[in-house]
Design goal:
- By secondary structure, the chain is of the alpha/beta class.
- The protein has two domains: 168 residues, P-loop containing nucleotide triphosphate hydrolases (Rossmann fold); 63 residues.
- Helices cover 42% and strands 14% of the residues.
- The chain has twelve helices and seven strands.
- A five-stranded parallel beta sheet has the order 2-3-6-1-7. Strands 4-5 form a two-stranded antiparallel ribbon.
- Helix 2 crosses helix 3, helix 9 runs antiparallel to helix 10 and helix 10 packs parallel to helix 12.
- The chain is globular, with a radius of gyration of 22 Å.
- The protein starts with a helix and ends in an 11-residue tail after the last helix.
- This is ATPase AAA-type core domain-containing protein.
- It holds the Pfam family AAA.
- One of its GO terms (molecular function) is ATP binding.
Length: 255
Amino acid sequence: MFDVKDRFNRFMPYRHSLIKEKYLASAAQDQALEFFSNIYGLAGMKENLFRALVSDKQINVLLVGPPATSKTLFMTTIQQKCNNVFYFDASNTTGAGLIEELYNNRRTRLVIIDEIDKLKKNDMSCLLGLLNDGRIVKSLKQIRYDFRIENIKVFATSNTLVNLSKPVRSRFQVYHLDEYTDEDFLNVVKFCLQNKLPEEINEMIGMLLIDSDIKDVRTAIGLGNLLKKEDTKEDVIRVFENWNSRRMRENLDYN
């Protein structure tokens, strides 16, 4: 029998309940490239992360690599483009811990933990339950927490695996992001600044940073924000030197 509803659904743009956007493309790899269109390269990893997001199974993902390799950019993109997301910055030692925050956000379906290796001891000890089936059982400050978050996924970043136990690591699909080569970094800088400045200026910013051994995309974007399309190469060099001569080269404490 001809099913009108089924035929209608087939021609409707694809949309998963966790994903805010609609997609006309039928192939997962094409949907992934559109979803992560603000990030340069890494097409294969984009596809797997997108498949993990739309899967009906609990798939936990961990991105590991040195600073300034787009780990956090992947997570902020996912946060912006998905529904029912709870974002937790583990490097922020002030405020409530992960357990208390999750208790107050029990309707979340996707937990993003940035710099998971910096989680507090109490939070780290309850992580296995969250990764297994969303169940958290823990006593803190004379309060006993015993709750479960249904259909949960956990996406996280880390600069290292050293502080994560083997049981925790085994519950993640781990993807390693290598430090940028000079060519990769230059391409990323030009990609991120392509709609802001002329290509030759974007390339110049990248080269100046490479020559100074500073392959940090966020720094490149920050410098790009100081410049205008009509600025000359001399302007670029001067702006860079103004910053480079005063940038922090070590951890200082004036207290």
